[in-house]
Design goal:
289 residues; alpha+beta; Jelly Rolls; 9-stranded antiparallel sheet; binds 2-oxoglutaric acid; binds fe (ii) ion; demethylase activity; Fe2OG dioxygenase domain-containing protein; Oxoglu/Fe-dep_dioxygenase_dom; AlkB-like; ALKBH4
Length: 289
């Protein structure tokens, strides 16, 4: 049974009550980051591209739209050829982001049909800068954070990834633990060991709020949205509604690519190094035989 901790008490910015910080893990939440008018514009823009009438046929699946530099999983780099111009409803708020250098240049707008979620994962370390943002709109949802553990590390080292998981990676540049498939996992996919060892933190992401993940929250913790029909919010059970988010990342290039974080268990850069070392060792053994 997972230890669900309600949101640990954040520090509220004395100059702005909309800003909450969980400094010990590197999380920051800015409420009312965008206006209700901006929110309506974003929802309209999303459905101009993917009409709700077409989405309604598939009520389980997240729908993604990509802007800026697409992530190319064949090269593990930013595609210089696949660039989709970033719409004004995104560029207009970039000057207000708390981290101005580097600014995000990859944007994934997602629609979560009511009840859907995203499996626990750590976004790829090697290819994206530290600051990782999620802007929520449409409705509120609790996001779960948990310090990664041995199971997460083991899952990330499983050799074969399903086509669906690769697709998910292409969708969002995330590193979903392989056994977290399918995209909306049933409870049977939960690995209790890590959850027993490390408490789950639930942070409510209100509509129009901006979440910034840095440090431990970005590199060492998994984040997830549980697929659920209802959520417990402030002691009340509320039905999960359709939600939109914009995940924002800065793509690393050239010498920036790689990672020196303190969480090698869930670091894709370290995993690649380990695998390369194992392959070299395997090669030496094989040639010596
Ligand atoms: O929808 C969100 O708020 C988070 C999405 C996410 O974690 C991702 O795309 O990597
Ligand atoms: Fe993520």
């Amino acid at each position: 049974m997972a230890l669900i901790h309600s949101t640990p008490t954040p520090t509220v910015d004395p100059s702005n009550p909309n800003i909450s910080r969980w400094d010990d893990i590197g999380l920051m939440l800015i409420q009312e980051f965008i206006s209700e008018d901006d929110e309506a514009t974003m929802i309209d823009a999303f459905h101009a591209q993917d009409p709700l009438s077409e989405i309604q046929g598939n009520l389980k699946k997240r729908i993604s739209q990509h802007f800026g530099y697409h992530f190319d999983y064949t090269t593990f780099g930013a595609s210089e050829t696949r660039f989709t111009p970033v719409p004004a409803y995104i560029t207009s708020f970039l000057p207000r982001l708390p981290v101005q250098s580097p600014l995000p240049d990859q944007f994934t707008v997602q629609y979560y049909p009511p009840g859907s979620g995203i499996p626990p994962h750590v976004d790829t370390h090697s290819m994206f800068g530290e600051a990782l943002y999620s802007l929520s709109f449409g409705s509120a949802v609790p996001m779960q954070f948990r310090m990664s553990g041995a199971n997460d590390a083991r899952k990330m080292r499983l050799p074969k990834r399903s086509v669906q998981q690769q697709q998910q990676q292409q969708d969002g540049g995330t590193t979903d633990p392989p056994s977290a498939s399918p995209a909306v996992p049933g409870e049977q996919h939960r690995q209790p060991d890590d959850e027993e060892q490390h408490p789950v933190w639930e942070v409510l992401l209100p509509a129009r709020s901006l979440l910034l993940m840095t440090g431990a929250a970005r590199y060492g913790y998994t984040h997830a949205i549980r697929p659920r029909k209802t959520d417990l919010v402030g002691g009340r059970t509320v039905p999960r509604q359709g939600r939109y988010s914009i995940t924002m990342r800065s793509v690393k290039r050239g010498d920036e690519i790689g990672c020196g974080c303190a969480y090698p268990g869930v670091c894709d850069a370290r995993i690649r190094e380990e695998m390369a070392a194992a392959a070299r060792k395997g090669g030496v053994v094989a040639s010596a035989e």
